[in-house]
Design goal:
With about 280 residues, this protein is α+β, with helices and mostly antiparallel strands. It folds into two domains: about 160 residues, Ribosomal Protein S5, domain 2; about 110 residues, 2-Layer Sandwich (Alpha-Beta Plaits). The chain has eight helices and ten strands. Strands 1, 2, 3, 4, 5 and 6 form a six-stranded mixed sheet that branches. The radius of gyration is 19 Å and the shape is globular. The two termini are about 30 Å apart. The mean pLDDT is about 95.
Length: about 280
Amino acid sequence: MKPRLVTERARAKINLGLHILGRRTDGYHELDSVVAFADVADVLTISRANELCLEISGPFARGLPATAENIVLKAWHQMSAVVGENLEPVKIHLEKNLPIAAGIGGGSADAAATLRGLIQLFDLDSNPTDLQAIALRLGADVPVCLAQKWCRMRGIGQIIEPVDVAMPRVAVLVSPRIPTPTSKIFETLGLDRGQAHGTKIQNLDDIKTWRNDLTASAIRLVPEIATVLETLGSHSAISTARMSGSGATCFGLAETLEQAQAAAKAISSQRPDWWVVAASLS
């Protein structure tokens, strides 16, 4: 019997390194990134319904529209276009626990979770090629969010391969709660079509040689990011502090969860207006 309700976790995507190689002639940016996923997540509950609808709750629900423009509903429409009239309407409840426009793939993770949930709910034939195409139409980060595993992401986000990197698997995540739209960050980066930029990741065994090529652009728009990075770097337990994605969320790596929790507690006491969590990466 097919389930009448499924629950999917949309985990935070962390770009441990994000090298921008240039801008293609079609306008998209070529990248090279190592991605992990934290055990903090939005939660989607999907159930059969008479008509398609979306409900949103949680600490970051305010200001997030439950309209056709929401990427969660776009995911249903994209899947429906492939499946056809056999895809029944659903009710989706989104518990929004991750900050919005924060560089941790919240919307992309929600879309990917919706696709996974629909496949499970309706026992759909998930042809990998079709599913990849659906995901990429929804956004460059959606394909990697489908897998929710350590990987190296290249191209415009469509080339994904698993990696096993020897490095700390615990982090403190900090956001100053200032939305940082990806499009504005790339606009500030200012690459012309066809223009080359940085180099690819050279050493997968040394995270300290990686970088985030969007950091300077993001700081120009949101100067608080520099304060977040400085705050993370000031803690002795933090080995590497870097911005994730297009910001404004930053991460600091720690050796143990206890160390990360202690650092997170100290930062929260210092800056109660920030979003601060300790998380395991997988």
